[in-house]
Amino acid sequence: MTVLVVEDDEITREAVSQYLRLSGFNVLEAESGEKALDLSRKVDVALVDVKLPGMSGIELVSEIKSRNLSCVVFIVTAYDDTETVKKSVEAGADDFIKKPVNLELLKLKITHALRNRVFHLYRNSYLKSLKKKLSLLEKTAEEFFTEYEDFLFEVLDILNMLSEYRDAETHKHTERVGWLSGRIAEEMGMDEAFVTEIQFAAPLHDIGKIGIPDRILLKPGILTPEEFEIMKQHTTIGFRILSRSSSPILQLGAEIALTHHERWNGSGYPKGLKGKEIPLSGLIVAVADSFDAMVSRRPYKKPKTLEEAFQEIEELSGKLYSPEVVKAFLKLEREIMDVYRREEDEDSSNDSRSSHKSSPGEGLEGIRE
Ligand SMILES: [Fe+2]
Ligand SMILES: [Fe+2]
């Protein structure tokens, strides 16, 4: 431990320094504030005489403290008046020692201060490292979130492509099912997170079709009951694929893949769930997907008009579809009509809903939706 003795009186300085050296401290000496400043960075304790030529002891204390925060500074003064003590404390002095200096007391005070200093140093460096860790963590969390978000959207995009690649349904169909599902959920008063999640998860409802053999998926004609049983497996296959992820969107996608063909009266598949046994996401996507399929042109059927489709969904409320979902869906009638009509107008020469490639196997499933 290094102690700096700042004292202009040579005899006092020598006596104090000598005693401290004999007590085992490493001692540096300075006769002025200016010289002391140069040495102050290297010391653990500074004993500063309040009366110095040039720079005053109190000025020196505040300078030392601004350069070496961990240095313990004692002001040494013959004046123990309140004003001097107050100024010393304001300048940053940790304690004061009265002149004439009691050497034994000085040694005790230094030893005690150094012990405390170790604790303060530890506390300060621990706090500093905590703050550093925290700021690093905040930054990383933000960056991590952005990276995760980008990554998730890329994965969703790839999954959507995969899903559409083998399916007859177009990108616009899956996009519309996502939009419709989000709007219905919002109309039902679901929270923002669920609305966003269902909007991104719903387009993946038929991803399991990538596991259906071509002879069935692409069969030009009506499926046999056996073939239809295999077709139904697109729900469980989709669930198996998407449930491998821990992402809330893909987890919801898994739930939707599994339940979008369940029907309110229990006539659906794969489990024949009834009413509220079916998760809300499945109930919502059932309506969105069926409606979009009804108004879409398929090789085996003419599209229904928007009015006809709304009427059919309404008639099937409480039979195939959840009454609550249908109620919210019907409230959106005007908005949905506007969106579909606008899209029809924009795309009138080459309507996406009339241009997708034919797939009777999928079509049969579409009829049953
Ligand atoms: Fe499906
Ligand atoms: Fe669909």
TrEMBL record:
The modification 4-aspartylphosphate is found at residue 49. InterPro entries: CheY-like_superfamily, Cyclic_di-GMP/3'3'-cGAMP_PDE, HD/PDEase_dom, HD_GYP_dom, Sig_transdc_resp-reg_receiver. Gene3D superfamilies: 3.40.50.2300, Hypothetical protein af1432 (1.10.3210.10). One of its GO terms (biological process) is phosphorelay signal transduction system. Residues 341-369 are annotated as: Disordered. Pfam families: HD_5, Response_reg. Keywords: Phosphoprotein. Residues 148-345 form the HD-GYP domain. Residues 2-114 form the Response regulatory domain. This is Response regulator. It comes from Thermotoga neapolitana (strain ATCC 49049 / DSM 4359 / NBRC 107923 / NS-E).
